[in-house]
Amino acid sequence: MAFPSPDLQACIDACLTCLSACETCAAACLNEPDLEMMRACIRLDRDCADLCALTARLLLRGSTLHAQAYALCAAACDACAAECAQHHHDHCQRCAEACRQCAQACRVLAA
Amino acid sequence: MAFPSPDLQACIDACLTCLSACETCAAACLNEPDLEMMRACIRLDRDCADLCALTARLLLRGSTLHAQAYALCAAACDACAAECAQHHHDHCQRCAEACRQCAQACRVLAA
Amino acid sequence: MAFPSPDLQACIDACLTCLSACETCAAACLNEPDLEMMRACIRLDRDCADLCALTARLLLRGSTLHAQAYALCAAACDACAAECAQHHHDHCQRCAEACRQCAQACRVLAA
Amino acid sequence: MAFPSPDLQACIDACLTCLSACETCAAACLNEPDLEMMRACIRLDRDCADLCALTARLLLRGSTLHAQAYALCAAACDACAAECAQHHHDHCQRCAEACRQCAQACRVLAA
User: Fold this and answer.
1) Nearest chain D Cα to C43, which residue?
2) Residue D1 predicted with pLDDT over 90
3) CDD domains, from UniProt (chains A, B, C, D) (predicted)?
């Protein structure tokens, strides 16, 4: 059987895309005039970026911890998506979408 | 209230000690004459090092994802301790002990 | 001006592709029958994966440390490419190519 | 000869202490009333934390990339120390001190 499977590869790609969106969003939030409103967004972007990076790497190496990693990554993505969706900045909206897609890809694998 | 609490600080310290033991063990395993026997140990050291590093950082920053992180870190430590304990190398025995203490510290916080 | 620039985006993409190739190669090497020959490859895959992940993240966030990061990432990629190129395994050959492209992308930015 | 040497172990310890101080400072800055003044501090804390974590791990595993890693880590620590020293918050002052000690430990090894 091919490794990684299509679902696994889709999840790895979603994690790396979400990592990129979260790093971009955190850095852009730190430049925004309404910084006061972006505290939670920056915090969650950081956690989500770290979780997505870790999860992608665990999946790429075929780690036996994958099931728990999906769950933790999906939780990070859900929290980040919910916060980002409340902000009108383009980087927040793009990040929310990347988080939703990553959470969904993690849940496909967990199922 | 002081931050971090004694239990939290103990867990952060245990994670960083375990990260160090796992990195040391993985590198030493890659130099061992009986490399053939060390495949699983190297794999689990890598995962455990990554999880300990992540968990320490999430705890230090007061992340809202802490509960799931404890569980995943404890799972990584349990798996790594079980494997390392089977090998007589000093670095494996030290790593097994660091993993057990880290798993225990994570469970104290989870309780 | 658009951020990231095309060269910057190309380097971020090359880093993430190389991270994936290095993680895949390290895990596959740990499964090879000729494990004895793969010690250096596993070591360099690990370092290169870590450096590529870090560099991608520093570039995505517009870090002021970018110039030094390019140089360190290119050095990691050069070393990993040179080692991987000596092994006939598909994962090693693919990793060597990803490393070469990432080193090149880092040098375009450094220039 | 013992591995790690005293200077190497001191540098690993300094990196892990600095990682902790930077994570703590970044999280605390994100809670400060004068958030507007802390933008650069948060950015540099993040970079410095990532570099200290990476450098500690490369040193622990005896990576061949150590010389370049010292230089990059020292640069991150210098930049973070200079910024943190300008803020009166306890977490900034403690972080500045940890950064100075880590930069110094990196330079001892580089010499």
Assistant:
1) D63
2) no
3) DUF326
D35 touches chain A (CB under 8 A): yes
Given a cut of 90, is residue B67 above it in pLDDT? no
What is the total count of domains within chain B?
1
Q: Which two tokens stand for residue B95?
A: 């790593």
Answer whether C37 touches B (CB < 8 Å): no
Residues of C in contact with B27 (CB under 8 A): 43
ipTM exceeding the 0.85 mark: yes
A76 lies in some domain: yes
Q: Are B65 and A51 in contact (CB under 8 A)?
A: yes
Instruction: Give the CATH number, domain containing residue D104.
Output: 1.20.1270.360
Give the sign of the dihedral formed by CA C2, CA C4, CA C9, CA C13.
negative
Q: Does C43 touch chain B (CB under 8 A)?
A: yes
Q: Which of A8-12, A66-70, C30-34, D11-15 has the lowest mean pLDDT?
A: A66-70
Q: How many CB pairs under 8 A join B and C?
A: 19
Q: Is the pLDDT of residue D95 over 90?
A: yes
Domain that holds residue B84: 6-110
> Residue D70: left if φ>0, alpha if ψ -120 to 50, beta else—which one?
alpha
- Tell me which residue of A47, A92, A43, A91 sits closest to A73, measured CA to CA: A47
Counting one residue from B and one from D, how many pairs have CB atoms under 8 Å apart? 36
Structural domain includes residue B63: yes
- Chain D contact for B56 (CB, 8 A cutoff): yes
